Amino acid sequence: MTDSNLSLTIDGRRIEARPGQTILEATDAAGVYVPRLCWMKGLVPFGACRVCTVRVNGRPQAACTQPVAAGMVIENDTEELRALRRDLIDMLFVEGNHFCMICEKSGNCELQALAYRFGIAAPGYPFLFPQRALDASHPGIFLDRNRCVLCARCVRASRELDGKAVFGFTGRGPAKRIAVNGEDLARTDAEATDRAVAACPTGSLVAKRVGYAVPVGRRRFDRDPIGSEIEPAAAGK
Question: CA-CA distance, 161 to 184, in Å (whole number)?
Answer without folding.
Answer: 21
